[in-house]
Amino acid sequence: MQRSESCPSCDGNDWLPLPGWSRSAMLSDGRFLEAQLNKEHCRDCRLVRHVSPPSKDQLEAIFKEGYELYAHPAGDSFEMQRQRRYADWILALIGARPVETVFEIGAGNGSFLTELHRRMPDWRLKGLEPSPIAAGHARESGFDIQTGLLQDIDVSGADADIVLAINVVEHAHDPTAFLSHAVTAVADNGCLIVVCPDGERPSSELLVYDHLHSFTALAIDNIARKAGLTITQRVIAPVSLGPFQALLLRRSSEADESARIGAPAQGLYEWRYRFLLAWHQLDSALVQRIESAGGNVWAFGGGESAQMLRTYAPETWSRVAGVLSDVPGSFDRQPVRIYGPSTDGQPRTLLLAVRPEIQGAVANRLTHDGNKVVQWDDLILGG
Ligand SMILES: [Zn+2]
């Protein structure tokens, strides 16, 4: 079904199609969904949106039932390593602001709040989370967490110096309403920190079914203004975290006549198009690479990139014997094997299942250990 609504950012209605998938899509927790994934690009502000997004009810069901990203207690080593990096980044952004209370929208299992508490034991930490299982884990860790979606909960009593929404706004049907609602939790002189994928460069977020919008700097600036907010700072995440942006927002005042963010660089549509086309062509290219490498094929990495390969390179994935990783964890409910030297004397081929941006470094290490390595960063980042 084609949508008729105008762009939620610039109100334009000039959309350019992006390559999509008719029957396979990945949810942000890695689950496979047999659904149509088609996105389109706003010619004016370069926002990306779904052509046929899940309904509000479907979206609520995704988050309230069976959402697996945080359906476990906080504390596994991969997750906590990531939260330490997030904490480094966000604490630097908060800087010397006086803080008593932090409120996190989409607190998951409380793993980020756990790390924040370790660093800042005097801060009062609370939040909300739609998944009852994840919210339960966060409460077990000692945090005051309400269960529900932001749109259904009155958060105006939170009175928080810092309100955080880390990787949440891209899931919202109405991002302006999301920001308007989120800011009601902010105390008078407080601020809202929103982290989301950086829409200025194409990345795997375009392949995530429940990411309903991708935001360029201009697109999120328009949306913030509609919500009565001013972006006072926009920073890009360190490479170790991936392609994300953080925005520091506060309620607009009369004095805010800040310059509008300029139009993004030309060529973003073509860049996004090439990126998605490369994902379309990845499966057949990887099958060829695996066949010419020979040997038993194992995937190296059990995170989001492995889930992406399983969804969007299924023929390749069907040839993988199992998943190896440096850190304990599970993939498809099976424990991953901890990476070590090959023990059976058979030649071993490792298909990299890590982000393209870090494949070069990982490949060097694994090749040095005597493995044959199949990487695909050139295919995805080549454009
Ligand atoms: Zn637009």
Automatic annotation (TrEMBL):
Q: Keywords for this entry?
A: Methyltransferase, Transferase
Q: Which domain of life is it from?
A: Bacteria
Q: Which residues cross the membrane?
A: none
InterPro entries, alphabetically?
SAM-dependent_MTases_sf (IPR029063)
Its Gene Ontology molecular function terms? methyltransferase activity
Give the record's GO biological process terms.
methylation
Gene3D superfamilies according to UniProt: Vaccinia Virus protein VP39
PANTHER family documented for this protein: TRANS-ACONITATE 2-METHYLTRANSFERASE-RELATED
Name recorded for this polypeptide: Methyltransferase type 12
Q: What is the source species? A: Parvibaculum lavamentivorans (strain DS-1 / DSM 13023 / NCIMB 13966)
Where is the organism placed in the taxonomic lineage, from the top?
Answer: Bacteria, Pseudomonadati, Pseudomonadota, Alphaproteobacteria, Hyphomicrobiales
